User: What shape does this take?
Amino acid sequence: MGLNKGNVGEVVVTREPKLYTGVASMRVFAINPTREELEKFDIRFQDEINYTGEKMDEATNSQVKTVRVDVWMANQQLDIKTKAAFFLEDRIQKNKDGDKQEWINNIGRSAWGSVTEPPTEYQWFDSSTARPAKVGEAVLINFLINWMNTKPTDEVFIEDWEALFKGDASEISSLVPIYGEKNVVKALLHVVENEESGKYYQNVYTRFFARWNHDKLTSWSDFVHKEDKEGKQRNLPRGFYSFEIKEFKPIPEVPDSDPTPEESEGTVAKTTKFF
Assistant: This one.
């Protein structure tokens, strides 16, 4: 008999979800949903979801408010549902020395300048509407620009920061009924391993997104592998990643020969090394 590998008794049988690395087209279906709202999408959490908190600001030795914006997205063809988590803090984004800070204007462009005034030397940066950027603000706005497919002159900014840091993300979540079904955003999927449990989890890289019609993977590789003045690559995703979309295999296959440069572009890599 061929059917001889069932489970006797009340055994819960579940299918392990497939994990992917690479750039994929994703549709947003929820932003900061409640536990009950996620259950409608067959996503279950044991506890209530808390998006707000506090953390110590070492520069001022004071507590600052924090908020996490979870953008849930899916790819029907790959049969995956995952989220991009954006972490924001109610303080100004400054460099380690505290002598420079990030500025952002009403159309979502950001640039670094002094702590007293925005930069004026960049033709692409309109400083007339510039204001100090909060920690994580520029990253979130960049996602919204690519997801909403805005025009270069369209204004994209958060109006009610007070409400957001209190946990009211309705200003952002209200965009889902407008853009959720119609728009897609290109996102880089990567996989992170939990060192304690040894399990692997699907993640979304949040530092770079692209519009629905952007197909050049070199844009992603150039950003991810960009080196700073010290020669360090600070944009690498955590865990395992690739640029060509592919199913993640925890145990890598042993190649018959060294990969060509073209094949390397799609190889799953860990942040410590890119093959």
Notes: Residues 20-93+133-254 form one domain.
